[in-house]
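During the second half of the funding period, the structural biology subgroup turned its attention to how the target accommodates small molecules. The most pressing case was 2'-deoxycytidine-5'-monophosphate, which had performed well in the primary screen but for which no bound structure existed. We therefore specified the complex as follows and requested a full 3D prediction, including the ligand pose.
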Amino acid sequence: MKIITLDGPAGAGKSSTAKLLASKLGWCHMDTGAMYRAVALAALQRNVALDNEKALAELAASLDIQFLSGAVFLNGEDISVEIRIDRVTAATRPVADAPSVREEMTAMQRKLSRKFNLVTEGRDQGTVVFPCAELKVYLDASPSARAARRYHERIEHGDKSHSIEEILHSQIERDQGDKDRPIGAMEAAKDAIIIHTDGFSLENVVNQVLELARGRGLTSDYIPK
Ligand code: DC
């Protein structure tokens, strides 16, 4: 099937772009960050030690993770809200660092790509998981714009627990962790198109990606006019 990868750091607008792009194309949206978060949530629920790589990988392999109507389901249960809480975000780091968990998630992601045309977002989608994707985009933005975006998203969800400065601080730490990961590190694929989203509206960014898609031959067969 056809694949567009959207990689890049948190807060650059990946999720909103991926969602709108997928809906304009009539393709599925795969949020691979949500998949790593789902494994972390399951580990917390089942008391699997976060430093036990073998147990985490076995757990990851046993999970049924699905995306339906914009929600994420773990073994049939909607976990879209739960996976965003700070405790799960913190637990996601060791889970995503574990190479054998990444192997399981890569296999799961590739399996989904056999059934559906995908707009897939993450850190390693263009580099590791789908090196032959039809189009690879890396979305970036300045640290301050990303922190402001994440701050406003939290406020929209009624969460005023962190200031922009605190969000910026934790963002710097997370970025470093994502870049330092020995396997699946956050980086643009050599053949990715980099889009800086500062100052652009969501519609504008989505249109830029759609233009690129048309340029790759993902024309009206795949893109409704
Ligand atoms: O995109 P996000 O913030 O929901 O991702 C959660 C964590 O998972 C983040 O630390 C990066 C990591 N991740 C990853 O290592 N590989 C991916 N393909 C997607 C996310």
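Two results from this model are relevant to the next phase. The mean pLDDT is 94. The domain at 1-12+119-213 is CATH 3.40.50.300 (Rossmann fold).
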